[in-house]
Every structure is written in structure tokens, then in C-alpha cells.
Amino acid sequence: MKTNLITKITLCGLLLNGIYANAQKTTLEVNTSNTITKIQPTMYGIFFEDINFAADGGLYAEMVKNRSFEFDDPLMGWKQPKSDRHNFNTESGIAVPVQFSKKGTNHNYCRITVKDAKGYEIINEGFRGMGIKSGAKYNLTLKASKEAGNISKIIIQFIGKDNKILGETSIVPTTSDWKEYTAQLIPNATEAKAKLRFTFEGTGTIDLDMISLFPEDTWNNRKNGLRKDLVQLLYDMKPGFLRFPGGCIVEGRTLVERYQWKKTVGQVDDREILVNRWNMEFGHKPTPDYFQSFGLGFYEYFQLSEDIGASPLPILSCGMACQFNTGELVPMDQLDPYVQDAIDLIEFANGSVDTPWGKVRANMGHPKPFNLKFIGVGNEQWGTDYIERYKVFEKAIKAKHPEITIVSGSGPFPEGDYFEYAQSELKKLNAEIIDEHYYKDPKWFRENATRYDNYDRKGPKIFAGEYAAQTVAIASPENKNSWECAFSEAAFMTGMERNAEVVHLTSYAPLFAHEEGWQWTPDMIWFNNLESFGTPNYYVQKLFANNKGTDLLAITKNGKAVTGQNDLFASAVKDVNTKEVIVKVVNTSAKAQDLNIDLKGSKFQSKGTVIMLTSPNTTDENSFASPKKISPKESEYTLKGEKASLSVPAYSVTVLKLKLK
């Protein structure tokens, strides 16, 4: 029996050796000396929209919800645990909103009446709680006016579970005039669901407004700035552009609810709060407490673009509300104010300090222009109404600012009558850049890696402004950020990169999602009140953006582009700044594949780098528990001769970087 077993093992080994000996490696050829076209600096960028609590409660680091009592329910987010807010005859006291003006932007304040000298309290719940870290500093500001009586002190505390005090400070109100007070809290524990409690000592009446709390440790240490960990994730992508403020949020469900950039600049206190269009959009995730404070406004977007090295790309309303909602239209003879908003925005971004809007920018702290190069007209409108309005914007902008590149749109879908009509009409108009959107299943992304191969090289350039593979369906709450979605997007991205003559900008969407406050999935970056992580899709985007190169090269198999043959997709670039050739290979097969990459036209150093992103299961995801389950692994690569041998794992994205001699 033993002899027979040994014989069987030996025969098996011989058979396997014979199979491997006869296996043919896939040979890819890269012509390193012939540049096909230049890669645009904007090739890979970021799409930002205030959806999923991406701004208030997310990137904008304000921790107090409804800080100026301007929500539709002025006390939303505020609790009065020792009183009934509907009963003015409470024993300890009462907080009631007071509307002092129907004009301007700040309409309300809160009047606190304290009847019990032992103390009356109100509590702010934050955005699904407040994330605080032990030993960190949090800066509080509030405006107060003593109306009557003698309220001698306001004690401010972080409280956790069972009202445990986690940090405390106080202020002493001194005058009946409106005055701003400041204080600092340093918690003694880390808590993701803290709340902020205000206890009033003495009796009487006091008015409060603009109660604000920010971590001191913000991005670039800016006072009342942005959440550091979230900006860091963006900075690490090395994005070529930042598109803002959306998205459907640009349009609004009605024209009144559209995004108006002029209302988002100047003093933060003077920015008018607006209901967020995503607050009740989906029955699966109603969020009635979702409003826009515009603390993150157009100035801050431009500033963020500058901080992360990205070209700003603002998108403006074209006078059409969301066509999935009301589709409300501005009559053509009333379009001038919308067009003027675009002209004035260019002045705000680029004008000298002697111009009216350049002066506004300078007064906010940035006398130097923001170097705006692009502006978008409309988000994803469609049909004759859009084309008619686009013509008016294009004529006016080009007459005054021929140096600005205009981004137009082809609607919400990547095919169909609306799409074909927009493409045809915009091409007739010599449109510069057309924005295309695609939310499709992973298979679609793999099958459409050749989408741009036959686009007119002399026609409009393409901005792939919103794309993300969907595991279930568009807007389904069951969509996941699965590994299959991510590597399928990578396969599609090799096709966009191969067609860099046509495709000039690309961005995944949406960008951010709060763990508890989301409306739409999938999303590139997830966060809660304390932590954040990049999805596999984020790491795909980062890999491509960090390795976009400067010159497109041809990579072929048997003389043809690598677009899915044997489930392989590939693109290649040269970076003249780092003197590297960079090859990207996506293996969507369930099996590992061996490659020979024949490098023609250049000599290389022997030491290079290989970066791999892979996971054995197509349904794998990253999470708060395993934030880097699927993340790049980098190692040294040794090149022998003029052919690079490489084994690419099943379901993988691989980047090979070789230094030129």
C-alpha cells in the first residue's frame, strides 16, 4: 500500500510539472518611447456633495446641531429634560424660540427662562451624538444677552451615558447687550455619543444664539475648520480637482431650494440655513434633521481645493430644478440673475481685490486669487430646456471670460434618448467638456472598458463626473462597497486612462457617508463621530490618482489593447517628473495569472515597486472593525532584463512602477 501511494504521488507531481511546463504566460507589450497623449493633471479627482451628512455632521467640524435655532423646528436637536417645552408653567424653567425678524438670514434666538435657582438645563444632542477624545481641546462660542433677573453662570458639560460628566467649563454672562463668550472643554474620556449640557445658575431670563463647538485640532489648525481625518483621506489621494457642491444638491427639489453660492460666503453667522434636499428624499432613510448651515460654503470649498492641491470645479444651477422632483424652470426671459451668478463667481474666485466680489474674497482672508479654470453649468439636466439654457450661459461666460473652460452635462444616464440628444447637440455647439454619469452593476463596468475607444478625438472632452458600481440597483439601501465593485471600477478606469485623449476628468460618487446619517449607498469614505475609513473603492481611486503619470503609453496583447481578454485589463503611463513607467493591471478572473511584460524602447533600473490590492472574496468589504481589510500592499520588485515577470492574484489590481535609467 505504501509503495502504491508513493507511486501515485510521484505520478501526480509529474503531471502537475508537465502542466506548468506547458502553461503559456500572457505576454503584454509596452512601448515606453512613444507618447500617445498627455495625461491631464485633472484626470483623477474628487466629487463632493452634501449627502449622507457629508458637510454638517461630517467634513465641517461643527459639533452643535441647529446652533442658531434656525431649523424649521427651531428647537430640533435641543432637549429640555426637566421641563415640557410645550408647557410654560414648568417648575424649573423653559426654553422657547423667539423670532425677532423675518428679514435677513438670522431670524431666531432662544429665550431661556429660569425659575429654579438650583438650576435649569438644556442639552444639545449633536449629529447622532458628539465624538470627543480624551485630552483633546474643544472650543465653545456663544452669544448671550441677559434680559431680566440674575442668571449668574452657565455651566457647560460634556455628558456621556447615564449623564456621566466627561468634561466641564463655564461662562459668566455680564450684560444685556448681545455679547460673544468663549470657553474651552477638555474631556477626560473618549466617547462617540457625548452630548453638550448647559446648566443655568440663578433665576431670570437670558437669550442665546449661535452656540458653536469645534475641536481645536482641525485641518491646518484653522479655527472653526474642517475635520482633520476626513481631509487627510482626500489629501492622500493627490486629487487633480475638487468638484463642488454636488450633485443634485445644486438643483434643489425646487428652485427656491437650489444651492445659491452667494448665500454661502461672508460671515458664517450671516449665512442663511436651508433644508437639505436629501432630508426626505428616500423613504428608506428619512432624515428630517438634515439642514445646511453653509458653514462649509464656497469660500471654504475653494480653500479646501487649494489645501489638497486640487483645481476647483464649481457647478452652478442653470435655472432648472431637479427633473426627478419638480423640474421647475426659470423662464428664459428671467435667466439673467442665474447667468450673473456664474460671472460673479469667476470674479469672486479670480478677480482682483479692487473688484466687488474679489474684495469679498479678500475680506474673508484670501486676497490672492484661487485660480479658477473650470465652471459647470447645471448638474445632470436633460432635454431641450437644458440645451436652450446652456447656450445662454456659454455665450455670456465666454464673452467675459474666454479663459474659463465650461463643463456641460449629458443627463443622469450613460445611454438612451436623453443622452444621445445631449451629446449630439453639445457637439454641434463645440462644447468643451461633457459630464457623463454612470451608476451600473459591476459587470457593466467590466464590459464597458472600451466605451471611449471610438469617441471622436476632435469632439468634446469627457468628464466622468459621477460613477460607482452598484451591487443591487441605483439608490438601493442594500448596495455594498464590495471588492467586486471596486475591481470592476478599476477595469473601467484602465479604459478611461487608455483614452486620455478624450477623458480629461473622472470622479467616483458619492464621496462621504455617516455611519448613521446616510441616505445613499455605496460611498467612497465612511465615517462616524470618531473614526473614518476608506472603502476598497477609495483605494482603487487612490492607486490610480497617485500613479496617473504624465504621458499615456500603449500596452497591448498581440497588438490589441488589453480590454478584458482572459479577464485582464491594463493601461500604462510614463511619469516624466519621477522618471518612471507605471503599468496598471486588473485581473477580474477567479484565478491568478502569470504575465510577461515586454518593455520596449527604454532601459530600466533593476529595482522597482509593485503595489497590489486584492481579496479572495468578491463580496469582501472594509469596515470600522477592519478598516484596511482590503488595502494596498507595497513591495520591492527586481527587474531582470527587458521583460518584467509578474504574477497577478485572482481578483486584483496591480501597479508596477519601474525607474528609467
Largest sheet: 11 strands, mixed
CATH fold topology of the largest domain: TIM Barrel
Cα Rg: 28 Å
CA-to-CA gap between the ends? 60 Å
What is the CATH architecture annotation of the largest domain?
A: Alpha-Beta Barrel
Label the structural class: alpha+beta
Briefly, what CATH class of the largest domain?
Alpha Beta
| Number of self-contained structural domains | 3
Treating each run of at least 4 consecutive H or I residues as one helix, how many helices?
10
Mean pLDDT: 94
Number of strands: 33
- CATH homology group of the largest domain: Glycosidases
Strand-residue fraction? Answer: 25-35%
Give the overall form. globular
Low-confidence stretches: 1-23, 84-89
Q: Determine the fraction of residues in helical runs and give it as a percent range.
A: 10-25%
Keywords, separated by commas or semicolons:
single chain, alpha+beta, Immunoglobulin-like, TIM Barrel, Jelly Rolls, 11-stranded mixed β-sheet, 9-stranded antiparallel β-sheet, glycoprotein, EC 3.2.1.55, non-reducing end alpha-L-arabinofuranosidase, Galactose-bd-like_sf, signal
